[in-house]
Amino acid sequence: MTDTLSRTFAALADPTRRAILARLSEGEATVGELAEPFDMTFAAVSKHLRVLQEAGLVSRGRSAQYRPAQLDARPLAAASAWIGDYAKFWEDSLTALDQYLNALQQLGAPAQHDPRTTDKENDHD
Fold first, then answer.
1. How many CB atoms lie within 10 A of CB 38?
2. Would you say residue 78 has pLDDT above 70?
3. How far is CA 28 from CA 31, 51, 54, 72, 88, in A?
């Protein structure tokens, strides 16, 4: 069995499932309501819902014929935290680059000629 994070990302890999989750973020919906914007059968939408359920992203009600789907965003929090770890990496990398460039400027590294300006603009005499 795969881990929760893998199931979450596998479920999110499909644009139809992402659209279904976006719709469910507005409130619960039936298979018929979820199928409306798509050119697919109720059975196809039900298969997408099954994948989302297996990933823990959707739960289904048990009210007779009416079985609305509801978003369960808890697995998305784990995915967001995992992605956030990499955002921290990039933030730290860019901060280090900024510090390096500032250090170069403080050492008096010669300014490069800016080809977008004319020689008169660069001539301060």
1. 13
2. yes
3. 10, 17, 18, 11, 34
